Fold this sequence. Notes:
The protein is an alpha/beta fold. The chain has a single domain, classed as Thiamin diphosphate (ThDP)-binding fold, Pyr/PP domains (Rossmann fold), CATH 3.40.50. Helix content is 32%, strand content 15%. The protein contains nine helices and eight strands. Strands 2-1-3-4-6-5-8-7 form an eight-stranded mixed β-sheet, with helices on both faces. Helix 8 links the parallel strand 7 and strand 8. Helix 1 packs across helix 6 and helix 5 packs antiparallel against helix 8.
Amino acid sequence: MNMIQTPSREFKPADYKSSVKPVWCPGCGDHSVLVSFQRAMAQLALPPEDVAVVSGIGCSSRLPAYTNCYGFHGVHGRSLALATGLKVARPELTVIVASGDGDGFSIGGNHFLHACRRNIDLTYIVMDNRIYGMTKGQPSPTTEPDWDTAISPGGTGLSPFHPLVIALSSGANFIARGFTGDVGGCASLIVEAVRTPGFSFVQLLSPCVTFRPDQQKGWKSIVHDAVVPETDDPGLAARRLMTDDGFNVGILYRGHRAPYQPKPIANFDPSRLEEEFAI
């Protein structure tokens, strides 16, 4: 569990900002996610050196470079595997994972299922724009089946992936959705996700202004606060999520399952491993 203690000093969002300038397209929702992250860390008063940001590949996965925290830019779809190993080895760190709908739900889908199941104390932020932005606009697992493009004329015809439903059924302990047009709201969701023990999943609807410019105005007009309060009942949450229109924002589920953390091996000497593999 991330033990959020009374801060010994105050922090400002700028304390979590690196000197690297973001290269996201102007107007990309990921800019808002970065600001939300900085505000959330300042609100939690976490020293930057106690936070690690792990990512995979994609526009969203550039996030670690833009923070003043420890960061690891991993390979495509493997961010949760990396973060799991880090959190198990260094449980005192607050570990945040940044991903996108392609990175997280396609090649990383298997890791997503098992990260939810293990319920290790991680916060997983997925910037979902329903497209592969970095690789020029292919449909992603969350793209609408009838979205017509030159790459997929007439649409893919495939049923979209429902990440919140998958997260709940796989065992995630905290599930929420936000919209990057509301920076304060996204920051609040990240704060609550970090404060909740176990695996926390936050889907942030993040418009792609380059390949899906329709999202910028379209999503802003249809996102709405969830009409029901958060619940700790998985059955009730499942019924809500299965009938969800994809644009309810807020905390949708918060469970009470204890996070998994393996016990350290007492008096373990790493040199013993070298002896076992010696030729």
